[in-house]
Each structure stands twice: as C-alpha cells, then as structure tokens.
C-alpha cells in the first residue's frame, strides 16, 4: 500500500504500541487526521482545548506506563497545552507530541499562525525533532515512541508538506529506551547512610511509590529504622488497605521542615531532595537541615525498583511485616458541619476497589489525604508541577488508560475552571469519572499565601483578586452545559447519597460540594 | 513613603498612565497584589484563566491605544496566556506583561513551578527584561510602558525577592516611544506606483484602517484609480454609515488571488503583502501575481497616518467625495431559514451607534462581514493571529477600555470554548457585552480545510475530530454557570427579539443561536 508521510508515521506509531491519540487538530494537521481515519489502530479522542489534550496524555502515561500521542496545531496549539506539559515533565510521564507545522516553503512567508515552534517545544524536553522528509518521518516517530518510554515528553514537529508527500512507508518499532541502572557504589553509599537508622530518611518519589517499591522501602525501614517519607506531589502512589502506608511530606515548608528537622542523612530515590514550593521573606527554601547529608541514589528516570531491590538485598532486609490497616474515618452526622474533611471522609468510605484518584483539591484536600490510608486500594495522582488545571484532564487520561477502573477527580473550583473543557471529553467518551468540585468560591490557597509573604490586613482590591464569588460559579450548570450529569450537595447527607449513587453507577458525573 | 519594589513599580506604571491590570496572580505575585491594594490608581480585573487576561489586554490596547498591564504567574501562567499574546503580537497591541518569578535564590533549587521564563517570554517580543534589583524595578516598568506605546508587547519578569525588598521609590514616566516616520523616498516611490492607476492596489492594515486613514486612502484612490484593499484580519477597522468602505481581502487564498489577479503594483501600508493562511498541496502561498511589484511603504509599527497624509499630499488628492451609504440587509421573514447570514442581518440592523464588534465567528461570519457596511458606525476587531479563543477576551478588554460603548461579540462555538472563562469576568465586572454564539456543533472551518488539503470522503474517525456534537454544548447553561444572563434562539423571530432586548439593555448577555 502506498503511504504518504502522515500515514507512514501513524502506522509506525501504532506498530510501536501507541493506541490513543488525544487531539485538537487544525488545518496543518489534516493529513494526520485523514491518516487516523484510514489506518485502523489509533483511537482519536478530541479535546476542546489543548490543555485537556496534554493533561489527558499525562494521566494516560501515568496509568498505562506507555505513551499516548497528542496531535497539536502549530505553536499556538502547543502553547495552550504547555502548562500541562510542564506538569507532565515533572511527573516524568511518557508522551509523544505530534506538532503540526506549516509546509516548509510557507514558513518564511510569516503567515498569521507562524511562530517559533522549536522555541516552544524545547521548553519541556531535550527530545525534539523536526521531520526533514516524508521518508524519514516514520523513523522519527519510532524514535520518539522509544525515547518517551524512558519517562519523558518527546516532541515531533511535522511540516505539512512532508505529511502529504509520498513516503517509503512504515518502519519497525525501535526498542524502548531502558532506564539506567544505578551504580553499585551508589547503592553501597546509600546502604551505609540507611544503617544510621533514625538519623536517616529514605525520601521516595517516582516509581518507588508503586506497591512493589513501597514494600521494598518498608522492608528497608524495618531493617534499619530509617524513616520513609514520600515526596510532596507524587505522580502516582499506590495506597489503601493492604498496602504500605508512608508519610507524605507536607506542602507547607514550615511543616515539612519540622518533619525533617532531625534528619542527618537523606537517601533520595526516584525524586530530588525537597525544597519549598515558593520562597518567602526570611524563610529557608531548602527543607532539610543545614547539616543533613544528601545521598541521591536514583533519579525519577533511573531504574528505581531495581535500586530499591538491591538496597534491600544489601541490607539483608527481612520480609515485610504488615501492620493492621488504619481505620476508615467516621462520616460526620447530620448535625455536623459540611467541611472539606467531611467530604474526604465520605469519599474514603465509598471509594471503590482499585479506584484512581486524580487529586487537584489543593487547599480543600490538604487535610484529607491521610483519611484514605484505610480506604480500598487505589492509585493517587497529584499536581506534580503546580500549574493548575491538571486534575480534570488527568482524570480523562486515566479513565482512557484504565476503562475498568473508577476514576475519582477531587477538584478545587479555581483550578477546575482552567481546563473545564475536559468535562465535554468525559461526556463524549462516556468516561467513568466522578468529579467532586470543592466550591469554596475562592483561590483559598492564595489567601494563605498572601499572609505567608507578609501581607497583613489585605483590602478590597487585593481580596477581589483571590475571590471567586460575585458571581459564584455554578458547576452543575457548567457540567450540564457540556453534557455531564451533575448535582449539588450542601450537607453531608446529600453528598453521601449523591456520591454513593455516582460510584455505583457508570459514566461521567459531577458533584459540586458547596463549602 | 517608603516603598518596596512592587509598590515602586506599580506607582511608576500608574504615573505613566496605566490604569488597568488584568490579573491572574499566584504566590510569587502576592507583593504586587498587595501593592495594587495599597496604592490607588490601578483597577485590577481578575480572569479565571490567563488566556482571558492576555486577550483582554489585547482588546484594551486596540481600543485605548495605550497599554494595560497584566499580572501573570511564572512561566506556566505566562504559557496559558501565550496563544492570545500571539494574536496580540500580530495585532501590534500595546501590552505590558508583569510576570512573577521565584526569588532569585530559589530559582536554582528547581522547585516544581520553576521554568525558563525568559525562554517563554522571548517568543512574543524583543522587549524582555528581568528586574535585577528593587531599585531598578520602577525604571524597568517606566521603560516597559514607553516601549509598549509603539505597538508591542513588553515582558517584564519580576523576581519575588526584589518585589518585597525596600526600594528607592517610584520614578517619573519615560516619554513613549514614537513611531518611525517613513522616508521621503518611500513616499515618492509609492506615489509613482499609485499613479499607475488600476494596475495598482493600495493594500492597507494597522492604523491606516482608522476612519482618518481610510479617508486619506479613498482620496488617493479617487486621485489615482488605484484600488484599496484591506488586510484579511485587521486588528481594528472603523466602518459603517458615513465612513469609507473598503474591500477586505478574502480568507480563502483562491478567492484572494482572484481579487488580486490583475495587480501589477502593490503599495503596502500598515501591514505586509498578503500570503495565504495555510499552505495547500499544489497551490501558491503568495497571493499576489508573480509579476506584481511590492512597494512596502510603512509597517504596522511605523507612523502610518503620517505616511498616508504625505502620499495624499504628494498626489494632490482632492477632498473626499463620499458615495451614498450602502443599504442595510433585509431581515429574513419568519418562514425563511435561520442561517448565519440571517443572524448577521439582524445584528447589522440593530447594531448600536458606536458599537465595538469583536469578531471570532469564523466560518459562520465569513459571508456576513459586508452586511455591516450600512450599519451604524462601529469598530470591528478580528482574530489577527489565528489562535482561536480570542473573541471573548478581546470583548472583555474592549468593554473595559470603552465603558460607554456597547460591545458585540460574534463568536464561533468551537473557539468560544477555548476561553469560555471570559464570561465570568464579564459577569463580575458587569461589562456591557452581548455575545452571540453561533452554535453549529462543529469545527466547520476544518471540514472545509479537510477537503482543501485533498482529503475526500472522510470517515467516522476523521469526522469525530471535527465535530462538536455528541454531546452538543449548551451555551445557555455554560453562560449561566458563570453568572451571565443567557437565552437561546432557534429562528429569526426569536433572535431578533432577544438581540433587540440585549442591545437596549445594559450589561453582559449571551444569545446562543442554534444553526
């Protein structure tokens, strides 16, 4: 079969195992749209804004452990997806972005949509390639897929004229890049530090937070007395009943520093040593004590599970003794206040087996996280890069990757507005996602931050910039406007009934909790 | 009064005439929020997504002819605003972006939100500065305002620690950059070309499309017989009854080339010579005939009105003879089909005196533009850079700049979704904007483009990527969910009644027309 560049690229990517393409195409990507149409094997999923597309690819990558493709329209389409690519980069998610470009002869004419696409695309990756011919295009795609597997974003820029030109056809897959194995020296040094017991903290992130990694970590803890702490914003952590429960470092630097204050050695695996999210006048940004020695064993792109296994082996760590599971939180009674914590208690109690939680509840979720230790086993996904507007799209991607699992999206109102278009994709694809919107009508986190940077007694003009009331958002209408069944809960009883019905049912559902 | 860097910067900008700050701040901008609170003179307007913030600044700049400030949160906040900055750059709108950055000691720690902000910000401007101290910060602001006045975006990156450090205080305004005067040689050459009469086209954009510029252009046409044509996507054109009406070059390259096929000389003023929006297999991208000579007189940043005046003088152009105004289109009767053109006819008939039209109707508006030549005098603003999601935010900014004028936003459904959060800002600020959503449940333009790039008989997977039905968006709910009064029209009669009521009233209103 004769193929143009777009078809050869697409066929190659399908052969390399890419099954889903989150897309928001424009004119310069029409050949790729046509190729998806013609060649079976790629499921196209439309997002009505590119932040949905890239965030969904992030969620998919976290859950599928392999890349989805995205289809983005030139530099402007890419830029709309950048905030969630920033988050995905920090999550080390595998993603292959296919970015359409004008035909090469058209670029120097500086048509209205012309921009420096390489300049855009280089901000999120060191794997960036612009196709140079229709014949080379499929190999570029194979390389992009292979490189993405190692936990990174790959950006392939496709000039339209190569997409529509006859090519030599698809090429075989390239072997996925493997994760580097940590050196024996690093393992030995880390083991020495861990032997110091309580003076040492094993600080975990990345793949180390999968069930298997946490079992190894707990065995190391039991062998040495070193304390396990998990990074503030894990891309994916496996937790709940029957699993190893680890302390998560608090978001607020003051509390985080308190957790780490006696640590003299920190063994870091799957992440970096912790620093505060923001800087504050007169406060330290580094969260470990000044005299703490950092031993970085494995980055988020190294083979972290292998490193943990070798550490456990070298320490002769005994088999795991699991403690009893923590209790589930009590659901507050009718008369009690309807708070974010009450919502957390209900969700934890009714969380379905093997659920996936996409958590962008921010301030509203901060004190509920621990409630879920005794809930049914689940995967918890967080806002890795701090660019808000990630929770809804990540839920979309997780639901596409795992159609048999229920996805629960815990979502702050301010953040939800950023990529509210994800609701439409949930409706169109009938994704099994229950979104819980914590509507507190404010950027609550910023009221806190305003104080933390030293602003006391803010006046009306300042408060107006942190306030989402006047008018309050009506999330039931916003969801229904995009085809998602929605309801509102104003007390615990209503919320419990609505959430129970939502998890017992199937398909997209939104519950607005008014706090 | 002692001032920190943020306060000194803000006071300086207010003294330099900046009155409005479209904002979506985060923690790193809290000192600037506090400064806006403390120092009178700057109106903060919150957008719930940065694309609203930057698009509003664009609309404000087009109508006020001076910059608004924006307040953006780090690289990720900036990237959310990039698509509309791309459009604003193509509109040569004056904008001063204040972009928060981490404290300088915090940057090397690579906290989650750290990114290459200069790399982001350099994509839209050659005026980019990162503040180097609290003392220099106000002068940086004064320079940014002065440079923006010449019709460009200026990007000022403000590290948080300089914002909170004591500074020497505000500095006086810097004289706005003036627009370069075109050389006498250029004028003389253009005059020679224009003297060739019908063989010559005077191709206009930018400031030349203001009422005064068009009068000069028409006088030149009357003196020489050269034909006036306006660029495809003007940032702002003044038109309607009693004004000079000019032909607008069609969007579709085939039609544009037809308009220009006999042109041997093109005098270009306030824009560049026309090229097609996209490239298509086997079709030329340059829209002027091969033997056409291009005479570029003035760019969109030069002093275009001065150039036109000197051209008119050198050609001894007589005073304007205005033809009769074109008739208003007839409003179709009850029995006739409810089409985009019927909507255009109603809007044209009821357009209030001195209205501002923010046009992002795309496919639905393409055949209605000419209907407004006989409407009440108005300003028409278009999608200059092709990055969709501009119409609603530009309407916000125009309404803030001109509170006494009615703003009509003609809006395609697909594009409206990109920055639907603008509706909330319209509600909060009670802006006098009537939004008309053309709901055709598709990216209609892309169905056309799919054919134009040579894809025939697209199948289900392709069509699903261009289709916005299943589910259809309910714009009444989406608007009401954000506090905007809304209604739906399914025939001409309903639309006429709703539009009439909307323009007679005051405040934000949305009408969904179902086509």
Automatic annotation (TrEMBL), chains A, B:
Domain Thiamine pyrophosphate enzyme TPP-binding stretches: 372-513
UniProt KW Transcription regulation keyword: no
Main enzyme class: transferase
Domain Thiamine pyrophosphate enzyme N-terminal TPP-binding intervals: 3-108
Gene3D superfamilies: 3.40.50.970
Molecular function per GO: acetolactate synthase activity; flavin adenine dinucleotide binding; thiamine pyrophosphate binding
EC number, UniProt record: 2.2.1.6
Keyword NAD included in the entry's annotation: no
Short name of any one Pfam family annotated for the protein: TPP_enzyme_C
Biological process (GO), any one: small molecule metabolic process
SUPFAM superfamilies, A to Z: Thiamin diphosphate-binding fold (THDP-binding)
InterPro entries given in the database record: THDP-binding, Thiamin_PyroP_enz_TPP-bd_dom, TPP_enz, TPP_enzyme_TPP-bd
Keyword annotations from UniProtKB, A to Z: Thiamine pyrophosphate, Transferase
Similarity comment: family membership: Belongs to the TPP enzyme family.
Protein name: Acetolactate synthase-1/2/3 large subunit
Species name: Pseudoteredinibacter isoporae
């Amino acid at each position: 079969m004769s193929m143009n560049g777009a078809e050869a690229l697409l066929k190659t990517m399908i052969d390399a195992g890419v099954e889903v393409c989150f897309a928001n195409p424009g004119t310069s990507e029409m050949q790729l749209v046509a190729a998806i149409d013609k060649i079976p094997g790629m499921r196209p999923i439309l997002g009505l804004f590119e932040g949905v597309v890239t965030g969904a690819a992030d969620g998919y990558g976290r859950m599928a452990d392999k890349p989805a493709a995205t289809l983005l329209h030139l530099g402007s389409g890419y830029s709309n997806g950048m905030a969630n690519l920033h988050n995905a980069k920090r999550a080390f998610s595998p993603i292959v972005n296919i970015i359409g470009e004008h035909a090469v002869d058209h670029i120097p004419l500086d048509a209205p949509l012309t921009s420096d696409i390489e300049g855009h695309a280089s901000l999120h990756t060191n794997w960036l390639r612009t196709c140079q011919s229709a014949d080379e295009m499929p190999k570029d795609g194979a390389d992009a897929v292979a490189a993405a597997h190692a936990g990174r974003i790959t950006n392939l820029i496709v000039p339209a004229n190569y997409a529509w030109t006859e090519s030599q056809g698809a090429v075989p897959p390239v072997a996925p890049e493997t994760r580097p194995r940590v050196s024996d020296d690093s393992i030995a040094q880390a083991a020495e530090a861990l032997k110091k017991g309580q003076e040492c903290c094993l600080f975990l992130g990345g793949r180390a937070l999968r069930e298997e990694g946490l079992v190894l970590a707990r065995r190391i803890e039991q062998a040495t007395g070193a304390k396990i702490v998990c990074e503030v914003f894990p891309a994916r952590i496996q937790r709940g009943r029957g699993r190893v429960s680890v302390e998560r470092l608090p978001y607020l630097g003051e509390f985080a520093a308190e957790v780490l204050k006696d640590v003299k050695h920190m063994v870091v695996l799957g992440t970096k040593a912790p620093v505060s999210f923001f800087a504050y006048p007169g406060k330290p940004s580094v969260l470990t004590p000044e005299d703490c020695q950092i031993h970085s064993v494995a980055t988020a792109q190294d083979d972290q599970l292998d490193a943990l296994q070798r550490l456990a082996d070298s320490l002769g760590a005994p088999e795991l003794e699991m403690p009893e599971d923590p209790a589930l939180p009590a659901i507050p009674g009718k008369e009690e206040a309807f708070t974010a914590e009450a919502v957390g208690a209900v969700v934890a109690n009714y969380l379905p087996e093997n659920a996936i939680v996409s958590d962008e509840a921010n301030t509203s979720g901060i004190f509920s996280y621990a409630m879920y230790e005794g809930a049914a086993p689940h995967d918890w996904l967080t806002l890795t890069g701090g660019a808000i507007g990630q929770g809804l799209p990540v839920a979309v991607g997780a639901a596409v990757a795992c159609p048999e699992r229920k996805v629960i999206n815990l979502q702050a109102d301010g953040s939800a507005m950023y990529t509210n278009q994800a609701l439409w994709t949930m409706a169109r694809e009938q994704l099994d996602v229950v979104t819980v919107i914590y509507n507190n009508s404010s950027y609550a986190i910023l009221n806190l931050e305003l104080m933390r940077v030293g602003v006391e007694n803010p006046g009306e003009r300042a408060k107006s910039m942190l306030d989402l009331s006047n008018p309050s958002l009506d999330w039931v209408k916003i969801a229904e406007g995009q085809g998602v069944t929605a309801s509102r809960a104003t007390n615990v009883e209503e919320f419990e009934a609505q959430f129970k019905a939502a998890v017992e049912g199937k398909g997209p559902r939104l519950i607005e909790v008014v706090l």
